[in-house]
Amino acid sequence: GVGHEQQTFTRGIDICGEHKEGLGTVVWMDTEGLFSSEDARSAYGPKIFSLALLFSSAVLLNNVKVLSEQFFTFFSDQQQIARVLKQGLASSGLPAEALLPGNLSVFWVLQQPIRFEGDEEA
Question: How do residues 34-53 score in pLDDT, each as one tens digit?
């Protein structure tokens, strides 16, 4: 579940499809957080993020902090990994247009933590 807190709720990747008239099926993917305390104990976050990049035409980054040089280095590395995977899949016969569109759009949403009256943890 998605919440208004800084805690990570998604484990792995959640996927659902939605039919849009005149467009086809839109597939929504929610991956576990990157650079969270949970991710620091696991190596799954970056791998899942790379997988999502392979199948995405747009990426929405939902973050509670300013994006750092660490993030941009990570994002660049993940794009390179996705390109290498795409080349391998294409050489195995998968049509190149099926993965990692050349016009990947990236949107960044910066959250401001919400503090409710009486909330001691925000």
Answer: 655 555 556 677 777 777 77
CA 73 from chain center: how many Å? 15
**Residue 62 to residue 109: CA distance in whole angstroms:** 5
Separation CA 44–CA 37 (nearest Å)? 13
Phi, psi of 28 (to 5 degrees): -100, 135
**φ and ψ at residue 108, rounded to 5 degrees:** -120, 125
CB 30 within 8 A of CB 2: yes
Domain ranges of the chain: 13-110
Q: Quickly list DSSP for 42-102.
A: -SHHHHHHHHHHHH-SEEEEEESSPPPHHHHHHHHHHHHHHHHHHHHHHHTT--GGGSS-T
Q: What pTM, to 2 d.p., does this model score? A: 0.54
Over residues 89-107, the mean pLDDT reads 72
Question: Is pLDDT of 19 > 80?
Answer: yes
